[in-house]
Amino acid sequence: MRDPREILAMSPMSVVQIVAVAVTIGLNAFDGFDVLAISFASPGIAREWGIDRAALGFVLSMELIGMGVGSIALGGLADRIGRRRTLLGCLVVMATGMLMATQAKNVYVLSVWRVVTGFGIGGLLAAINAVAAEFANARRRSLSVSMMAIGYPLGAVAGGSIAAVLLKQGDWRLVFWFGSAATAFFIPLVYFLVPESIEWLCQRQPAKALVDVNRTLIRMGHAPVDALPVVTAKARNMSVADLFSPQLVTITLLMSCAYFLHIISFYFIVKWVPKIVIDLGYTVPAAAGVLVWLNVGGATGGAVLGLLSLRYSLKLLTMAMLAMSTVMLAVFGYGQPDLAHVTLVCAIAGFFTNAGIVGLYGILAQVFPTNLRASGTGFAVGSGRAGSVLAPIIAGFLFTAGYGLQFVAVAVAMGIGSLAGAIALWFLPFKREVVGTS
Hints:
This protein is mainly alpha-helical. It is built from 17 helices and no strands.
């Protein structure tokens, strides 16, 4: 009996599979868009409602809290009801959250809708990692997940550019109007272009699973199969609690720690670069330009890591990227003689820091079984979001305590997270997948 999962793993990728992975790149871009768009919109929000920085910081943190909760809660949902349904549901939640943010009359209502939007994005992040992995063949799996992950810096660049144009009209709500419309645009794309994952259907085997598997196999250019592979009831009914079973608890904790620790370093440079560049005496547009190049470097780093993963160990590549992240943050901390050097160093730092995240996503897609892939990703990403909240706070305390960036203390301290993440990966049991055809 032919196993549909083996057919996809060992065959060249079809147009349907390539398009599905391409859609995940666009979906992941919403995370990057949302992060930078709200940052650009925040001055208008503060000005209109007359709120101070403390209240504004509260608003900015709401999306991150929502993402953390959404990643953990909806990752498990994607493993129970399917990738496609979860993606569509998350997109509806995100579009609604962004739309209702335009109707907010005060900071409290806006905060609620930012949590809702973040909740949807968090679930989306957990599900698309599984989609990118499960629509790829064995040889291209790490590359496909890497391509999905570079959606974040691409979305950040696009988000900053689009927000800058929209905000010339003076109304911060335009950013959320655009975000809601763009999110809604992806709903039919996912509905028509992303079928349910064959790997998930074979593992969970819901009603009419064989019909759905054969329909998708035919779309991909393969012959239908007569029956689905035999799967035990225990394997079909695994839940989030199984992430902490004796077989998986070490993987779950090590991956969560590695992601959490690296995210602290990543969000330090992402959140503090504009402020630091301005404090060095450069203009606001110059700071925005440096941030753009940081994300350009990030997109490039993710793509390069994906290509390298075709030939080399993903675990070792990711550890190297995390170690280099620490080095580049220290170089950043030493200070640069002019704006050109600041921009170059930030672009290189972006290369390694984002490549580290891309590698972690790739490992997450491989270390968890199919029926826990979204749950495991969601738990690790959700835990990591706590690092994204803590990173600006920790750096702020260090700056306030008198550790100037020129003494490297803050940059080195924040960069240690990436190195610690690399050390956590060293202890991770991880075996490179068997490579099939291209």
